[in-house]
Amino acid sequence: MKMYLRMKRKGLYATGLAVMAGHVMAQSDVRLYGALDAGLLNITNTSGGTGYLPGKVNAGTLRALKDGGISTSNWGLSGNETLGGQLKALFQLQGNVNLANGSGGGPNSNSATSLFNQMAVIGLSGDFGTIKLGRQASPTYFAMASTDARGARYFGSALNGLVALNSASKAFIGNNSNVAFGTIYNDNALVYTSPTIGDVTFNVGYAAGESGGSVRANSQQSLTAVYRANDWTLSALYYNGYGNDVPVATALYGKALGDKAPAAVAAAGLVPTANTNRLVSLGALYRWNAYKVSGALYRATNPAHAVLPGGAASLGMWTLGAGWDISPAVNLTTGYYRITDHTNVGNQASQSAVGLDVLLSKRTLLYLVGARVRNQGANMNFSPVYATAVAANSNARAVMAGTRHTF
Asked: What region holds the Porin domain (predicted)?
């Protein structure tokens, strides 16, 4: 059951302040919401290394209760206040809840743990569109999900492909959202969403690096366009960033070089103003009756060519997907995702996935999903499961059965 906290303030007059006399306060609405998602996971390959860094050690099969087969469990508060006409003030706070152990929150862009690690924004909306300030989901994610038949889920989707692109850089551990290629979340972000113009919605994002002495340092920019009309969805995205690899590179070099690590990182060209992060993509999804098909092309590059040894500065990914609404309550989807490393010739990875959803009600569903990945190359560790790394240059199979409830 949705839970609402409604605060209505009508005819509230200030006493003793003439300037406030006769002023009627606007109406506000605050909503508590969330999603709980967990299941049983079996995966035949798990990494024995550090986070998502490609490593040779295979820790073997994992059988576990896993939070997040569709997305991580989360809860949040959102609200808006009518200011007059179409103008509204808004806010949203949203953070992870791990059903496996009861912990909350998650990493932000600086590797610290934030209670509201997914969304912490305030903004304004009106005829002009919507402006949001704060930590928030990047427009990149929504564009990616719109043209993926699997919906960029946490198991067996284009999202896992994006993580694999980042892993291939050898500069992504997974303990923060300041990634090597594209991103899902940004700290210090301003995002503008346009009104729909000719069936197209635009998003423009800017994440400030907050580095003294340089506006460019550690900053990130994004632009997306999504077209929806006549059974078609078309997406285009552009993401660009500076200095994204520096913190991870410094930590990695630090293990071997100690105090000399910063100098080694700088010598490799990994400085806060280096253009180390670019992701572009075009995608399409077509629906007819109970069916849908999708496809997308991605190109991830490090324009500065500042990489760690064995890491990739240029990668490509293409995806294909399909879906079938077997009945109003039963849905089948499948997807294929293939990555090619243009820096380390011959290195490649692929993922095949299929999933079945069964709706028990408007807010509760059961799901069963399976995937297989093939990894070829020392920096290829494509995992079918978000937040569950696998060993590099090694194949894996995974299956998960779970349930999801929203409120």
From this structure: 15-377
Buried b (16+ CB within 10 A) or exposed e, 114-148: bebbbbbbebbbeeebbbbebbbbbbbbbbbbbbb
Place of tokens 């564009």: 143
Q: At residue 262, does pLDDT exceed 80?
A: no
Q: Please write the tens of the pLDDT for every residue from 350-373.
A: 999 999 999 999 999 999 999 999
pLDDT in tens, 125-134: 999 999 999 9
Lowest mean pLDDT among 71-80, 305-314, 334-343: 305-314
Give the number of domains in the chain.
Answer: 1
Domain region containing 375: 39-70+139-186+208-406
DSSP state of 97: B
| Chain centroid, CA 128 distance in Å | 26
Spatial contact of 351 and 371, defined as CB atoms under 8 Å apart: yes
What CATH number corresponds to the domain at position 401?
2.40.160
26 — pLDDT class (breaks 50, 70, 90): low
* Banded pLDDT at 22 (limits 50, 70, 90): very low
285 domain-assigned: yes
Give the β-pairing of 113-114 and 119-126: unpaired
Residue 20 domain flag: no
Q: Which helix (H) or strand (E) covers residue 351, if one does?
A: strand 348-359
- β partners of residue 91: 79, 122
What torsion, rounded to 10 degrees, do the Cα atoms 114, 117, 120, 126 define?
170
- Classify residue 23: in a domain, yes or no: no
Structure confidence at residue 28 (pLDDT): 77
- Residue 90 resides in a domain: no
Q: Which two tokens stand for residue 262?
A: 């910063």
| Tokens representing residue 89 in the block | 């003030």
DSSP code of residue 259: G
Cβ–Cβ under 8 Å, residues 38 and 403: yes
Reported as type and span, the H/E element at residue 249 is: helix 246-257
Tell me if 272 sits within 8 A of 134, measured CB to CB. Answer: no
Contact between 147 and 159 (Cβ < 8 Å): no
Quick one: CA torsion of 140, 146, 150, 154, rounded to 10 degrees?
30
Q: Is the dihedral of CA 199, 207, 151, 78 positive or negative?
A: negative
Tokens 């994992």 locate to 62
Rounded to two decimals, the pTM is 0.90
- How many Cα neighbours within 13 Å face the side chain of 160? 35
